[in-house]
Amino acid sequence: MQAIGAFSLNLTKEGINLDINISGKTSGVLLACVLLSNSVIAEEGLLGIQGKNIGPGSIYPDLTLKTVHDDNITRSAFNEIESFGLLVSPHLNYEIKNNKKRFYIDSMLESMTYEGSGQDDYLDTRLQTGYEYTPTRRTFVGIQGEYFKSHDDRGTGQSEGVGNLVTTPDKWHHYMIEGNGRYGTEKSKGRGELDLGYVSKDYDNHRSRTFVRDRDDTYANARFYYRLMPKTSLLIEGRFTDFNYDQDATGIPSLDSDLYRILAGVTWKSTFKTTGTATIGYIQKDFDSGSRDDDGDFTWEVGVEWRPRTYSIFTLNTSRDYLETNGFGDFIKEDSVDAGWTHQWHKVSPRLSSSVDFRYAEDTYPDTGTGREDDYWNVGVAVNYKMRRWLDISGGYTYDERDSNINLLDYDRNFFELSVNVAL
């Protein structure tokens, strides 16, 4: 069996030697980016310099190499596909900024090559750019754009439960533009924020079935904070999203819809070692087609961070949301809980840290005719060792499970990873 690749990292007094052996399936453009990141790091001599000055700004390259083992790549209930894989991801950020203005360009490539399942290989690319302007202490405006070329793994999205029957992942790309505005500061009696955005997503392969997933989203979010106490504010928030699908399947009512959400609650900072936001409200989804039932319900969003020590952080998040359907039903109603713990093990080593993450989600699919309900469980643990300012080595394990009332959609998955990140 042909090896998918290997990497070795050698530290010397002179700097870093990085040797990479990648199979021919990996893009030559990607390999060039890897070598560019390594050459920039070597040029700086790893003397603790934060970025490299180029023209009026600074460039920040980093490179992640990760070896993984996935025992159920297609998230299947039977005939699971198991494989080792190698991920290579160079990342480059260029930034120009002063006290009032900031301009940035951020680019990323991510290549995954599987040893035993080459049809699941992928190459994702992302390019972001943005401009921020803070003319006064109270005023902020910004605009950002993104091009993202990515994929849905087999067994996710439209291929849930039938990932083994799909030849390759579903590939897609999207364009996004968003504008942001803010008036007021955290010390102001009142302050407001506004986000306006547009996202266009189109699938690139398997067009006989993915054409119905192409869509344009237009959204607006507004928030108003009223300071009740020095570190506590009342929060009122409204959100609106218009979903516009490009085409409908023959004989199937349109999924075009509007989603409204109104929330009210409080936000607080550094109170009894906690920081957080807690809101409750109402969510409403209205379909353009009279053949689909509109729906509304109680909703909530809670996020809390607790720091019993400066080196130990606990987080808890819970929410109810309406998600776009992936083929079952009119939409997905999701209730979720996320919890996490990160810790710096100073007594063992100031370079050592760990994290534990837990997620549970209950998804229901209105109007499926099957009464589909899914329970998702996800537990992950990771350990990170910071060998140098510019070098992190980490390892982790994730258990992922879906328990559905449709047996074909059940799966469980064990995912192991070991990674090296080199950053300037």
Structure commentary:
By secondary structure, the chain is mostly beta strands. It has one domain (5-423): Beta Barrel (Porin). It has helices spanning 28-44, 207-210; strands at residues 5-12, 15-22, 52-54, 57-70, 83-97, 101-114, 122-133, 139-152, 170-183, 190-203, 215-229, 232-245, 257-271, 274-287, 295-309, 312-324, 331-344, 352-364, 373-388, 391-404, 411-423. The strands form two sheets. It has an 18-stranded antiparallel β-barrel. Strands 1-2 form a two-stranded antiparallel ribbon. Strand 5 (83-97) and strand 6 (101-114) form a beta hairpin. It is globular and about 55 Å long. It starts with a strand and ends with a strand. Mean pLDDT is 90; it is low at 12-16 and 22-49.
